[in-house]
Structure formats: C-alpha cells, structure tokens
Specification:
single chain, two-stranded antiparallel sheet
Length: about 110
Amino acid sequence: MNLTFSFLYLAQVRVRRVRTYTSFKQMIADIGIHNLLPDFKGELDDAVDLYRSFGTTRGSYRDLEKEHGAVALDVEPLEPEDTDEDNISPGPHGLTPWTPRSRASTVY
C-alpha cells in the first residue's frame, strides 16, 4: 500500500504495518514514547495529553480518539526506483512535492 502524507513536504512512503488501538495511552505504552516522540521529555500521561491536544478540520484528536481509537502506521520512504516522479502533483497550499532527490530537506 502506498500512501502520501503532507507535512512541510509531500513524501511517498510505503506502509509496512498498521496497528490499531482503543486509545492513545494504549498506543504510546505499546510503541514507546521515544519511538513516537523522540525529543519528548514528559511521562506517559503527558504524551497522551500532547496527542489529544492536536486537531484537524474533522475535530480534536481527543474527540476522534473517543470515536475511532488510535492508529499507528509504520512507514518507510520509497526509494527512487519505487516512485514515478513525473506523476507527483504539487501538494495542497503550494507545498513542495517531496521526491527521493529532495530527501536531505525532508524529515521522516
């Protein structure tokens, strides 16, 4: 399965594993704070509060967690031979498309 996520740049990634949880607390406890939030200095409950503070146009993560639980995706960037760079369209809001050649400027 290939999915495209946008942050500061668009990235073509391969989803290696999908893990579903009933809550952020369960997800963070299973995967580990450092694996999800490498520079985070707080405890488990602090990390849960941080995740719940995020939001989207569909609602707060706190509300979405109650409705859907939590999902963790293990992803890896696609290598140049796995992508068709001629068919990568510009991202929303004028974001620069990520390509394997722009890897140096992309945070994974």
